[in-house]
Structure formats: C-alpha cells, structure tokens
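2024-03-11 09:14:02 DEBUG pipeline.ingest accepted 1 chain
2024-03-11 09:14:02 DEBUG pipeline.ingest length=137
2024-03-11 09:14:03 DEBUG pipeline.predict start
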Amino acid sequence: MNIARYFMELPIFRDFFGLFSQVMDYRGSMSRQDFWRAMAGYVLVYVFFALISVGMLDYVIPALPIRNGFVLADFFVYLPTVFLVISFLPVLAAQARRLQNAGFSHWWLLLIIIPYIGWFILLILLVYPTRSAYVAN
C-alpha cells in the first residue's frame, strides 16, 4: 500500500489539505469538528517539518562538507518557517469560517494582534458550538 495515499485518506490530513482549496473563502462556515481536525493536521504537519529541521541540524548538516559557505541541507532548517508562511492564509480563512459558524463576525480575528489575552479570547470563541440561528454580518 502506498503510504502517502494512506495518510491522505485519514480525516485529519484530508481536512487540513482541504483548507488549501478554500484559501480565499472567508464568508462560508466550518463546523467545529472539521475545524479542529484540520488544526490537528496542521500541528502534526508542522511538528513533522520541525523534526526534519532538528534532525538536519543535529546529524546531517555537521557531516556534510561546506563548499563556498553553502550547504544544500541548510534549506531544511527553514522548513517550519516556510510551512507557516504558506499555510497562513488557509488557516486564517478557516478561523474566519469557524467564527462565522459560531455566530461571530470574522472581525474578531483582529484579537490575534493582542498577545496572550487576545489569543486566549480567540481560542474560546473558536470552541463555541455552532449557532443554530446563524445570521451573516
């Protein structure tokens, strides 16, 4: 069995990679279960890239010869950062859709600007159940 196909069929990764197909959809809604499954996939993929980065730092890069100050494996050090930049808009769109589904305006995402307190309040808003009488703002 193809291992990549096996992982792509898991709901966690299917929901996470589904975020990239809805990257510019800020007006729809997203159920609580789909959102948290996608965020779990996001965390797992980030941890995977971070482990690759740490592995490159500890074991591979010191063993490679340096030519002209450049090692091809240096790219792997930046994998987690590249992943965060690429996935920023899909995750932001998912948060906006989740807030809409919970009955809040997507403008509540501006709480990200406030360190710690804003993040905690946003986390609480993202956990709210789906509002049955959803009214678009």
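2024-03-11 09:14:41 DEBUG pipeline.report The mean pLDDT is 83.
2024-03-11 09:14:41 DEBUG pipeline.predict end
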